[in-house]
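Late entry, written up from scratch paper. The run itself happened at the end of the previous shift, but nothing got recorded in the book at the time, so transcribing now.
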Amino acid sequence: MAFSQLSSRQQGLLLTGGGALVMSPDALLIKLADLPDAEILMWRGLLSALGFLAIVLARHGRGTLAAYRRCGWTGVAVAVLFSMTTCGFVLGNQYTKGGNVLMILAGSPLIAAGLSWVLLDERLPRRTWLAILACVVGIGLIALDDTGAGSWVGNAFALLASATLAINFTLCRTRPGVDMSPMLTFAGLIVGVGAFLVMARESALRIPPTDSLLVVLFLCLIIVPTGVTLLQRGPLYLPAPEVGLLLLLEVVVGTLWVWWIIGEQPAPLSLLGGALVLGTLLVKGLYERRLEQQLRAVG
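Output as recorded:
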């Protein structure tokens, strides 16, 4: 079935779930690159900006400038917010254990749900609230062994990433039908130029080792632009809390990537938590698909 023939909800699920899966090796590749804070931020920002721009040009062609203009001041806010999310995610992983970051990021759907309820008057069905709570419990189990192991600085960066991501997706819902993904180009530039200035001031500019450079190129030119563009389009079709809920796929699958590639075997509680998240999303998806089929039959 062609993408355009899918229901709006199915399109949102496909875009957001696909984006989460594409982004799932993100944390693994950051570890494999093994670069200092400002350096990984500089390369990630500048290279991903090129990747985002290439996607916008491929999608809009001669209408590229118009695509940027449609975003307006809301798009500027989206760019700033996503640059803060990027910094919070990368630096959070640098200064505290990954489990702490994952547990804090798991709160993003709850933050988005609260914002959508207060600001947009979007009423979520009870099943969505239950799914969010179940997934938060699952991510909590994944992170349980790491609780308290990180510094307050790393936890603060992770909270910054979680909050700005939720605000970003909620803000996108205030402009129905407007695709904000072109503004990701500017988000990358904000991060990259800021980190470049820090490195230039410290006289730390350099070309990374070949192995690290190849990892960075793959991550920042392919993985990040493709995955984040898909995720950023999610709020066009789904409420912000549900976009945040599907993002938890990245957390669970990302844990499996780290286990498979570098041998960081999850504890039994982590496996239980991952199964709870994936199982919740699967049951919710199947139930809502059945509801859609029933509505079509009645219609």
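The chain has one domain: 14-298.
(Scratch paper discarded after transcription.)
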